[in-house]
Amino acid sequence: MKIISSKNNSKIKYLKKIRSSNSFRKKERKFYVEGLKELMLCIESGFCIDSIYCSPKSKKILENNFIEADYIIDEIIISQILMRQTEGVFGVFDEKTEQINTSKLSNNELVLVLDRPEKPGNIGAIFRTFEAFGFRNIFIAETNLDIYNPIIIRSSLGAVFNLNISKLSFNQIEQILKKEKFKIIISDVDAEISYNKVNLREKIALVMGPEKSKVSNNFKKISDHTIKIPMYGKVDSLNLSVATSIILSESVNQRKIS
After folding, report:
1. Residue 100: pLDDT above 80?
2. Nearest 5°: phi and psi at 207?
3. Are 43 and 52 in contact (CB under 8 A)?
4. Contact assessment for residue 206 and residue 113, using Cβ atoms and an 8 Å cutoff
5. Domain 2-94: what homologous superfamily?
6. 2-94 matches 102-257 in fold
7. Does 258 score more than 80 pLDDT?
8. Per-residue pLDDT tens over the stretch 67-83
């Protein structure tokens, strides 16, 4: 275990860069995690540890959870690194590439397809809800999104580590969905059918569009159903994470009843 007491230490500079730069994380194939709960979820999900850091006061917290710190950092310096108020523990981990194992897809699997998503905070919230409802597989279409963005990790409360998330092209997604005989359901505010009038117990792929526009025409052309969430006030649209949560909740309720 090493002690870092200078803000000019190369490790401090590295930490700040890995925390704040998407391109640097992509180059290094590593990501930054802060907070005890998120740290433990990451470790439990099988991600390889690069290095663990803590303040002198938080060393005991790690020890109580059987985690050994590689570096202890001065309290003043650590406050310049942390993005939020936590227990003063954080780490750097290696990315891992999840392979799509279609043999593990059940006969009533629900796969979530996020079409060109944009806002990390919304995406993290969707991951959190999706995992909380007991689902596992997410396809992200046509995006350069960094799924280990610290904002996504934070807003998902670490749920991102428990999910099978694949970034794919539309053609790759279409091929998998057709081969595995998924029914494709897309959400669209202009649809005529309400989300609770469609069978969501089947083997389905739920496609949700980006925040600023609708699901792409590519997905519309291959869809089996188009659904909407009825709204009765003056507001004519919902936040992406809220809309996704409503439809996922309906699917869970239908599956429980059946």
Report:
1. no
2. -105, 120
3. no
4. yes
5. Ribosomal protein L30/S12 (3.30.1330.30)
6. no
7. no
8. 999 999 988 888 888 88
User: How far, in Å, CA of 223 to CA of 242, rounded?
Assistant: 22
Amino acid occupying residue 23: S
Q: Please give the Cα distance from 14 to 104 (Å, whole number).
A: 38
pTM higher than 0.90 for the full model?
yes
Percent of the chain with pLDDT over 70: 98
Candidates 163, 123, 159; CA nearest to 141 is 123
| Tens-digit pLDDT profile for residues 143-155 | 889 999 999 999 9
Q: For the residues 170-187, what does the mean pLDDT come to? A: 96
**DSSP element (H, E) containing 217:** helix 217-222
CA–CA distance, 65 with 232 (Å, rounded to integer) = 49
What are the domain boundaries of the chain?
Answer: 2-94, 102-257
Q: In Å, how far are 25, 39, 43, 53, 135 from 92, measured between CA atoms?
A: 10, 9, 11, 9, 27
Q: Which CATH class is domain 102-257?
A: alpha beta
Report CA-CA distances (Å) from 6 to 12, 69, 74, 78.
8, 18, 8, 10
